[in-house]
Amino acid sequence: MSNHYKLNVNNSFQFDADQEKVSHLDAVSVEENKYHILKDSKPYQAEIVEADFIQKNYTVKVNNNSYTVKIGNELDALIKEMGFEVGKAKQVNAIKAPMPGLILEISVTVGQEVKENDQLLILEAMKMENSIASPRDGVIKSISAEKGNAVEKGQLLIEFE
User: In this structure, which of 31, 34, 39, 140 has its CB flanked by the most CB atoms within 10 Å?
Assistant: First the structure.
């Protein structure tokens, strides 16, 4: 992969940059996170106000104007294209039976707030008790299963708001 970058400024403007374009900037660090930049013989005062290296989000002040900049490279574009965005988690809104079995216990009620990994219910399958835990924090919207009932694989058990 080359050193090609996509810059999104204030969620409004998009720019392409590569190592060659960056090397033509005449930038001098004047103090920590502050720079004097010459671009096409025009001077700019730049300061990195905030930096989130993991999310690749930056707040930059240029000549006293603040800009929010998101930087992405070719790998980020490929990951997004494949549906695996960095730092994004899939929102699970429904719990379905992972296998056929019998509901032994339901540990939650409609409207109850739950935390990630709280026990939701116990499903008996093949003479084994399987504790089904919450995949995320949330509020229980509905419970489709009842204690003592048999369920099929893929059957809806619990929905989150």
Answer: 140
pLDDT range class, residue 2, cuts 50, 70, 90: low
Helix then strand count (H, E) for the chain reads 2, 15
Q: Give residue 58's identity as a one-letter amino acid code.
A: Y
How big is the CA angle at 138 (ends 133 and 140), to the nearest 5 degrees?
80
| Residue 123 placed within a domain | yes
Q: Report the distance separating Cα 37 and Cα 103, nearest Å.
A: 67
Given strand 119-125, what is the order of strands in its sheet?
128-133, 119-125, 101-106, 150-151
Read off the amino acid at residue 37. I
Alpha carbon separation from 112 to 71, 138, 139 (Å, rounded): 40, 8, 6
What is the per-residue pLDDT across 111-159, written as a single tens digit (0 to 9) for each? 999 998 999 999 998 889 999 999 889 999 999 999 999 999 999 999 9
Last residue of a domain, one of 58, 82, 106: 82
* DSSP 8-state code for residue 19: H
